[in-house]
Design goal:
The chain is α+β, with helices and mostly antiparallel strands. It has 17 helices and 22 strands.
């Protein structure tokens, strides 16, 4: 028996017991006559005590133990003289009678501590060491608990978990596929699924009216903090439902997770916001509603005053930063620098200080009178002490820049508390979006999303105005889930493919299996998929999903721990009839 107890469970009630523990040496302290070692395992840390007077040989052996040595000790639980009430085992220590070195360890490349000295790249290279740190352990435990609670809730709601294939057919919509060559079908390729979309619809045709799985998905796209080439979804589908049925069910799931995991309760239904309102008031379709500072359209109010910057553009908009009229010129210059970064894209910034005495000071005093600026302030419902920040340009890009500026100001003013959660549904998305490069419409969600019934007549006459029966769940400015009511009628699905520019032959080639299935009686159905990694990182208060994935890829899509992706030997390529052509 390697242990009778873990390193996180012994308390003052265990004093006098003889126990055996096993774990890793966290740190040691040599105090002359006494040596203390912190022994760590997944469950916690227990202090070990060695007395030079009572057992000099054992004490000398303990002093030779290095960090991360794997050891086994046996001894008696004693009450500590200097207690540490910040840890569960802080009232006791083990006076060790016997020690066995189970495995020695090299000096780790970074300290295995909560606040480590290792950068992200080195920690990812030695991920198995990084996972020993308490923050990483807690993230993995949180992830596990959320998966268990998800399964518990959905099982209680009569959902059945069904696994769908990982080797599937490549589809043209969405991100780039990862492709897998087939040895048995020479010259042909599987694709890894971007989602189980078509399979969960087929499960509805098959009569499994409530399906879910916690599933790996794959997308070959550029990476960022909330993207990985392989990620995990809570994937769900329901038959014989309308939009409200889906929203109410999965709002219940999110409320359950918050209560079970975070002890956080939400009263009443989550707010719902149309896509158009989200774009006009927040500048994006995933608004952070923990704070106000809504966008305001100033175009008609400010044009025609001789200020060419405003007169020559499509849109002028702004935000009101409460209590910021005291900002210095240096602070205003920093905000200007922020909005003119290439990734934000604004040409410049106009600011107006609404001073505490009711006067105005702005960067455009030459063109606008105090009376003009008073009207601006009224448009914002501004108060003395507030700061107005205004941008101008093309409507879409200006809204986007204002959205980023709003989030930045929310960060500066401490309005984006990670311990405060503000969920909402965003609904009534456009069904299609026009792509200038390809000169055709693309599905804003995917080709199987149903249009609003009242908008179906516009599919042929004005497809850009058709609204989708689609919905996203947003929490704190993060899109954590999205879905739609699906098209279950074969003729409407063909109409959708036509709007997307597919010929009948192309549609049949790509999605014939689904179209054929619909001829055998497809029920009305809809579903949703939650980004599980995003949900876990949100609950954990972390900015990157890499911190809640055991073995993630870096920003280049590489696993630097196992050095993947890597070259394949020539024999393997020959067997697959493949040849690697190197790019210049």
């Amino acid at each position: 028996m390697y242990r009778t107890n873990t390193c996180g469970e012994l308390t003052i009630s265990d004093v006098g017991k003889t126990v055996t523990l096993s774990g890793w040496v966290q740190r040691s302290r040599d105090l002359g006559g006494m040596t203390f070692i912190d022994l760590r395992d997944r469950y916690g840390i227990t202090q070990l005590a060695f007395n030079m007077e009572t057992n000099a040989g054992l004490c000398e052996k303990a002093r030779k133990l290095g960090r991360e040595f794997v050891i086994q000790v046996t001894g008696k639980v004693e009450e500590r003289h200097s207690k540490n009430m910040n840890m569960p085992t802080g009232e006791i220590e083990i006076f060790v009678d016997a020690i066995t070195i189970l495995n020695k360890a090299e000096i780790p490349p970074f300290t295995i501590e909560d606040d480590t000295d290792g950068g992200e790249e080195i920690r990812m290279k030695y991920r198995y060491l990084d996972l020993r740190r308490e923050p990483m352990r807690k993230a993995m435990e949180l992830r596990s608990k959320m998966a268990i609670e998800t399964r518990s809730f959905l099982s209680a709601e009569k959902f059945i978990e069904v696994e769908t294939p990982v080797l599937i057919k490549s589809t043209p919509e969405g991100a780039r596929d990862f492709v897998v060559p087939s040895r048995m079908n020479n010259g042909q390729f599987y694709a890894l699924p971007q989602s189980p979309q078509t399979f969960k619809q087929l499960l509805m045709v098959a009569g499994f009216d409530r399906y879910f799985q916690i599933v790996k998905c794959f997308r070959d796209e550029d990476l960022r903090a909330d993207r990985q080439p392989e990620f995990t979804q809570i994937d769900c589908e329901m038959a014989f439902v309308e939009q409200d049925d889906v929203l109410n069910t999965f709002e219940g799931l999110i409320k359950h997770l918050f209560m079970a995991v975070m002890d956080e309760e939400f009263e009443g239904p989550f707010p719902r916001m149309s896509f158009d309102d989200a774009m006009s008031n927040y500048g994006n379709d995933k608004p952070d509603i923990r704070f106000g500072m809504r966008l305001r359209d100033l175009t008609s109010l400010v044009q025609g005053k001789g200020f060419k910057v405003f007169d020559s553009v499509e849109h002028v908009g702004g935000i009101c930063a409460g209590g910021c009229a005291s900002y210095s010129r240096k602070q205003l210059d920093a905000i200007t620098h922020f909005v003119t970064k290439p990734q934000i894209g604004a040409k410049g910034l106009v600011w107006v200080k609404y001073n505490e005495d009711g006067s105005f000071k702005s960067s455009v005093d030459k063109f606008y009178t105090p009376e003009d600026l008073q009207k601006w302030a009224e448009k914002f419902n501004a108060k003395p002490g507030d700061l107005l920040l205004v941008l101008a340009g093309e409507k879409g890009s200006t809204r986007n820049a204002l959205s980023e500026l709003r989030l930045e100001m929310g960060e500066q003013l401490g309005l984006r508390n990670k311990k405060v959660f503000a969920p909402l549904w965003v609904v009534d998305f456009p069904l299609l979006e026009w792509d200038e490069e390809t000169q055709r419409y693309h599905a804003m969600h995917h080709p199987f999303t149903s249009p609003k019934p009242e908008d179906i007549d516009k599919m042929k006459t004005n497809p850009g105005e058709v609204r989708a029966n689609a919905y996203d769940m947003v929490i704190n400015g993060v899109e954590v889930g999205g879905g739609s009511i699906r098209i279950h009628d074969q003729q409407l699905q063909q109409q959708m493919f036509q709007a997307l520019g597919f010929s009948d032959e192309e549609a049949q080639e790509q999605f014939g299996f689904l179209m054929n299935a619909f001829t055998y009686g497809a029920p009305p159905h809809g579903g949703i998929a939650f980004g599980f990694d995003r949900l876990v990182s949100l609950f954990a208060g972390l900015d990157s999903i890499r911190d809640v994935i055991a073995f993630p890829k870096n920003n280049a899509g590489r696993d630097i721990m196992i050095d993947s992706p890597s070259a394949v030997n020539k024999d393997a390529l020959d067997e697959l009839s493949l040849q690697v052509v190197k790019k210049d």
